[in-house]
Each structure stands twice: as structure tokens, then as C-alpha cells.
Amino acid sequence: MSVRIAPSILSADFARLGDEIAMCVEGGADWIHIDVMDGCFVPNLTYGAKVIETVRRLTSLPLDVHLMVVEPEKYFEDFVAAGANVLTIHQEAAPHLHRQLARIRELGAQAGVALNPSTPVATLADVVDEIDLLLVMTVNPGFGGQRFIEHSVQKIAQARALLHSRGRPALVEVDGGISRDTIARCWRAGADTFVAGNAVFAAKDPRAEIATLRSRCSDVA
Ligand code: DX5
Ligand code: ZN
Questions:
Q1: Per DSSP, which regions of 116-216 are E strands?
Q2: Residues facing 90 on adjacent strands
Q3: Which among 75, 107, 108, 106 has a CA at the least distance from the CA of 89?
Q4: What pTM value is reported for the model?
Q5: Who's near 60: CB < 8 A, 6+ residues apart?
Q6: pLDDT of 140-149, one tens digit each?
Q7: Which end of the chain offers a freer environment for a tag, N or C, measured as fewer CB atoms within 10 Å?
Q8: DSSP per position, 11-30
Q9: Ligand 1 site: residues with CB under 6 angstroms?
């Protein structure tokens, strides 16, 4: 299983966004993770299509857009037009999950579903066939730099088992508190795609940190 490292620009210095993205590319990042927050689904506000479009101009890496918003379907078209490759919506914010996932794929993007720490994996049993990525939140969403919730490791294993039982080759992503100290546990449990904000951007050498995160996974492979 290959490892994908997705630095989250939530922790980047926006005055130097071009340099920050270039640094991720040089460090071997696989995806760029973009956190969209609406101040309603989560208690924080960030950015929308304009920033996705800006990042699109700065890199050709896939853009992994995490929608922490209510009524996410309002933004699908604009975000795909802005250059998003993956759109991940929250199970808790999407009462018509099946239809919304189908819509994302119809627009040509990969469809992801995220689960808050309090939402069981089993709630996705009826949409497994519609998803390209299952995101297990390893913190309560809203802010960077929070502490990893240990219980998530079991959920990662459950997520992988659910996908496997249905023969679904979807990615299992983790987001929140991922660092050189927590990443291997997630990898061992079945995650293959790792969002890292603080661990990368607050590191002394962010380029090297991306490689270190990746190596922690191969160490246990
Ligand atoms: C949190 C966001 C994350 C955040 C992760 O709600 O979804 O993507 O940037 O930040 P770290 O890696 O610092 O926990
Ligand atoms: Zn995120």
C-alpha cells in the first residue's frame, strides 16, 4: 500500500503561500489538503473557492478539499471548477449522503466522506459503494495543532475492514494530530493517506519532516 502525505495549508503562512506550497512540493508531498470551514458546522472560519483556485495555480499536485460546512452541496461545482480533485464531506452534515457523493463523482472529482470522532464507522455501510475515500477524523474538526485522539486507531481498523469486506479499494485518510509519533499507529491500523498541518509547517525543516512522516510508515510495513 502506498503512503500519501497531504500537508494542510491551515498551518501555512498565508503571507508566503507560494513558498509554502513550493516547499511541500520539494519535500515530496503527494497532495495538498485544503480545509474549508464555515463557522457553523465547526467553530472556525477559513476559505473557499478563491483560495482553492490560488493553490491550483501554485501547484499541479492533487488538491484534497475537506468541507467542514453545512449544506456542502452548494459548493461542489465552484470547488471542482476551482481545481479541487477530491471533495470530502462530513457524514454529520450530509443527510442525503448517497446523492451528494454521486454528485461529486458526476462532476469528475473523487468523493470522500469524513467521520467526526463521535460518529461510528457503521453509519457508512449503505454508501460504501459510492466512496473513493473514507476520512477518519483523529481530532474534533475546527483547528490545527490539536492532540490526536487514541480511540481513532480502532476506527481506522474498522473503516479498513468495512471497505475490505465490500471489496472497495477506497483510500483511508486520517486528519488531526498526525505527527512522527502518531502516524505509524494509523498506518498499521489501515490508513494510507495522512493529513499533517502542524507537524509539517511548525517543523524546523518541513521538507525533511514530510520524508520522516513517510519513513515512519515504511518502518512498520
Ligand atoms: C482540523 C483540520 C485539519 C488540520 C489538521 O479540523 O481538518 O486538516 O489542518 O491540523 P494538525 O495536523 O495540526 O492537527
Ligand atoms: Zn482537514
A1: 133-137, 171-175, 193-196
A2: 114
A3: 75
A4: 0.98
A5: none
A6: 999 999 999 9
A7: C
A8: GS-GGGHHHHHHHHHHTT-S
A9: 8, 10-11, 33, 35, 66, 139, 141-146, 175-178, 195-199
